Amino acid sequence: MSERTGSAPGRVNLIGEHTDYNGGFALPLAIPARTTAHVRTREDGTVVAASTAPGTEPARFAVDSSPGDVTGWAAYVAGVFWALRDAGHDVPGADVRVDSTVPSGAGLSSSHALECAVAVTLNDLHGLGLDRTTLALLVQRAENHYVGAPTGAMDQMASLYGQDGHVILFDARAMTAEPVPCDLAAAGLSLVVVDTKVHHEHTDGGYGARRATCEAAAALLGVQTLREVQDEPVGDVVSKLDDDVMVRRVRHVLTENARVLDTVALLRAGRPGEIGPLLTASHASMRDDYEITVAEVDTAVEAALSAGALGARMTGGGFGGSVIALTAAADEARVSDAVRAAFDQHGYAPPSVFTVRPAAGAGIEESTQ
Ligand code: GAF
After folding, report:
1. Which atom of ligand 1 is nearest to the CA of 152?
2. How far, rounded to the nearest angstrom, does the alpha carbon of residue 106 sit from its chain's CA centroid?
3. Which atom of ligand 1 is nearest to the CA of 112?
4. Helix, strand, or coil (residue 167)
5. Fewer CB within 10 A of the terminal residue: the chain, N end or C end?
6. Cβ–ligand 1 contact at 152 (below 6 Å)
7. Residue of 147, 282, 145 lying closest to 202 (CA atoms)
8. Domain covering 185-356 in this structure, CATH number
9. Phi–psi pair at 336, nearest 5 degrees
10. For the chain, first and last CA: distance in Å?
11. Is CATH 1.10.357.10 correct for 3-181?
């Protein structure tokens, strides 16, 4: 059969932000919202991509397009074809139909869900035999070089390796993804997501500037990535740097890696209800040291905590997007209502508030295998 349907989920990052491109640790989970890609081979060297998402136009481009040829939503599709072909896989053209329940621009990695859905589907359709880590790296290449966003590999690893009932401990230096049990419902907990509706693209300057500062700090410290100084006391590391902004960026990365490992230890000990303070500390570090939060995001975190959330933080690359709040299941409605009320009081557009649980990663629909 020359057609396949595959799908890949969005993600929430439980903790570990802006650590991946520093060779560090992150702890994402795949969420139930998914993007589905139906791919049917064409013989004319063309890709025709269409999406059911509002505001998207169908796109038609050569299967061997180059970075810059395709822009807008279809660049994520074109980028995957480009990365596969650039790696020597002679994939032919195709009709690609996309349907998604991952909210776009919400910081829940809708772009990676799209790329991963196309990647797993092409991998299966053409029998490429690529493992998930290789696919994640190819999708990262598509994102970095075709779309032009200098992102790390966390989102792809979460989308490809996600598992029902588990968060994924991603070690960006080793490129490993280890499932860690996280059955929130069994522990009487809820994970509330607040999409603040403040949208931001990682092709804008803020993300790249943070990455550049970390890379400059690593160079000054004489290491490849900040991960190599992770085992030294944070105070010792930052005392070797003069620039205050650089000190704060490095402090965020090193303390955030430690918070990820502390969170994993609590989850492995069967104490998920105790991770809240680590989530909240992560938020403070993103707000004060990494400076990637915005007013709506901080408002959502403060309102959730005031209403009794066990912990709350922005999730994802920042400058907008979504906040997560861990609550006792019984407090979920009160926390959600408090966030909505705070947005109303501040005159912000109403947020979208919903819950997520750790869900399955990317896969192929059986009827088309
Ligand atoms: C975005 C990026 F795509 C990830 O690679 C990661 O850096 C994240 O921001 C911040 O943790 O989602």
Report:
1. 5
2. 10
3. 3
4. strand
5. N
6. yes
7. 147
8. 3.30.70.890
9. -60, -45
10. 8
11. no
Q: What is the pLDDT along the chain (369 residues), one digit of tens a residue?
A: 599 999 999 999 999 999 999 999 999 999 999 999 999 999 999 999 999 999 999 999 999 999 999 999 999 999 999 999 999 999 999 999 999 999 998 999 999 999 999 999 999 999 999 999 999 999 999 999 999 999 999 999 999 999 999 999 999 999 999 999 999 999 999 999 999 999 977 667 899 999 999 999 999 999 999 999 999 999 999 999 999 999 999 999 999 999 999 999 999 999 999 999 999 999 999 999 999 999 999 999 999 999 999 999 999 999 999 999 999 999 999 999 999 999 999 999 999 999 999 999 999 998 755
Q: Which of 20, 124, 155, 331 is catalytic?
A: 155
With a 6 A CB cut-off, is 18 part of the ligand 1 pocket?
yes
Every domain of the chain and the residues it spans: 3-181, 185-356
Q: Is 150 a pocket residue for ligand 1 (Cβ < 6 Å)?
A: no
CB 23 within 8 A of CB 175: no
Burial 245-276 (b: 16+ CB within 10 A, else e): ebbbbbbbbbebbebbbbbbeebeeeebeebb
Task: Give the SS3 label for residue 315.
Answer: strand
Rounded alpha-carbon distances, angstroms, from residue 272 to 16, 134, 181, 256, 263: 16, 31, 10, 18, 8
**Token match 């009932």: residue?**
165
Report which residue type is found at 31. Answer: I
**Is 244 known to be catalytic?**
no
